[in-house]
Amino acid sequence: MNHKQMTLGVIIGNRNFFPDSLISDGRQEILAVLDEFQIRPIILDEDATKLGAVETWEHAKRCAALFRQHREEIDGILVSLPNFGDEKGIADAIKLSELTVPILVQAFPDDLDLLMPSSRRDSFCGKISVCNNLYQYGFRYSITQNHTVRPASDSFKADLKQFLGVCRVVRGLKNARLGAVGARPNAFNTTRYSEKLLQAFGISVQTIDLTDIFGPARKLGDDDARVKDRINRIHAYVKTDAVPSPSILKMAKIGVVLDDWMQSLDITASAIQCWDSLQANYGVNVCTLMSMMSEQLLPSACEVDITGVVSMHALQLASGRPSALVDWNNNYADDPNKCVLFHCGNWAKSFFDDDFKMGYAPILGSALGDENTFGIVEGRTPPGPLSYARVSTDDRHGVIKAYVGDGMFVNDPLDTFGSRAVVEVPNLQTLMRYLCKNGFEHHAAMNQSHSAPVLAEAFETYFDWEVYQHN
Q1: What is the DSSP string of 224-241?
Q2: Which of 101, 107, 133, 315 could form a disulfide with 323 if both were Cys (CB 3.0 to 4.6 A apart)?
Q3: Cβ-count burial of 330 within 10 angstroms (0-12 exposed, 13-18 middle, 19+ buried)?
C-alpha cells in the first residue's frame, strides 16, 4: 500500500447551551483517531473560538480563513458533532472556505442513561439539520454507515478509511493528466471515448503520435547511459532468459523516450497503441514497460484505452496498490460465478506469484512473427481480494457512467499463457448481462483490494456519474 499522509479540515460543531465537556471530550476523541490514522488535522485552536468549535458567523469566518491558508493541502473536511451543533455556522464555514473537497459528517451517540440536560447531546437530530443545510448550500457530502457513531469505534474507523479513499480518488481524478500514445487501433471501436466529457471533470488527455516515439528511440545510441540503465532495470524487474538482447534494447530505448515525454507534461497515467503498429513497425512489445509503470503507480493501459486507464487510476487511488487492465475473457467451465481474466501481458508485477517472466505474444506473433512480439509479461495471479471497475463515456447520452464491484481471485486450475487469473464474482451472470445491455466495453480495470464502495461513493456523490455497484 502506498499512501501519502492525508490532511483533513476538521470542524467541531457546537451549540452553547449544551455542556462544554461534550465538546472538549469529543474533540480529543476525534483527534486521537486522526492521529492513529496518521492524518494531519487542520482545526481551530481551542482558544481561537469557544473550545475551538464552530457555532457563530464569526467562528465560521475564522474557520474558513484557516482552511483557506491550507487549501492546497486539505484533502477533505470532517464535520464532527459532539452535540446538536449549529448547522448554519458549519455550512457557512465550508462556504467561506471556498473548498470543493469531499465532506464527511459524523455525530456522537447519546447514552441512554444520560439524557438529562447536563449530559445529553441530541447529535442524532443535529446531524439531520447539518446535512439539510449542506444540501441547501449545494455541497456534496458523505455520511457514516451508522447515523450516530463514536470516533473510537471500529465502525467509524471503517467509515474514515473509506472516506480517505474517496478523497484520494476525487483529488486524483480531478487533476489527472493522461497520455494517449498512438492512434486507437482501427478495429477497436470499444476504446473510443470523449475527451470533452472527461475534461469537464478535470481529466485531461495529452496525445503523441507513435512516429514521435519511434524516431527519437531509433536515434538513441546503444551505449547511451540512460538506455543501459533501463536495460538493467528491465533485467532486475523480470526474468528475461528467453528474450533476445536486441528486443530488450529496443524496449529500453522506447522506455527512455516515453519517460522524457511523460515527465515533460506531468503525465501520471498512459494508454499505448500496443496493437499492432509497435510490432509491425518497431519489432517489439512494450508490455513490460507498461507493467513497470503500473507497478510504480503510473498506470498504463493497452490499445489506447483512455477510459480504461481512468478506471485503473481510480482503483489505484482508492487502494494504494497497482491496477491492471483486463479482458473479461473466458467462461470457467460451467461455473456461472467464475471466469478467466486475461491480457497479452502488461499487468504490474504485484499481480503475479514467483513464476513471472518475459516472453512473446503468440496471438500477435501468429500474424506478425514471434520475433517481433517479445516483451509481454507472463504469470498467474494468486488467490486474494479483487476489485473491478470500468469508467465509460456514454457519448450518445452525454454522460460518464461506471460499474464497480468486488470479488476474489481464486486458485482453480488454468492452463493458458499471458497475464491471467481466475476470479469468482457473486452473481456474475447478472453483471455480464448488465455490461452487455448497457453497452460497456470488454475491458475492465482490476485491483487486489476491495475498493468498490470507495469508487461508488466517489463517482456517484462527488462526480454525479451514473454508477452500478454490483453485489
Answers
A1: -HHHHHHHHHHHHHSB-T
A2: 315
A3: middle
Provide the whole-model pTM.
Answer: 0.96
SS3 at position 408: strand
3-state class of 452 per DSSP? Answer: helix
Q: Which cell numbers in the block locate residue 36?
A: 492513529
Cell 480495470 belongs to residue: 445
Is there a contact between 165 and 454 (Cβ–Cβ < 8 Å)? yes
Task: Indicate the domain borders of the chain.
Answer: 7-169, 177-470
CATH topology for the 7-169 domain: Rossmann fold (3.40.50)
pLDDT band at 65 (very low <50, low <70, confident <90, very high): very high
C-alpha cell read off for 15: 451549540
Query: pLDDT per residue over 376-390, tens digit each?
Result: 999 999 999 999 999
| pLDDT higher than threshold 70 for residue 1 | no
The three grid cell numbers given for residue 131, joined into one nine-digit string: 446535512
Q: Which CATH class is domain 177-470?
A: alpha beta
**CA 285/CA 183 separation, integer angstroms:** 16
In this structure, what DSSP letter does residue 265 have? T
DSSP codes of every residue in 139-200: ---EE-SSSS--TTSHHHHHHHHHHHHHHHHHHHHHT-EEEEESPPPTT-GGG---HHHHHT
**Grid coordinates given for 148:** 450516530
Asked if residue 274 has pLDDT above 90, the reply is no
d(CA 46, CA 27): 9
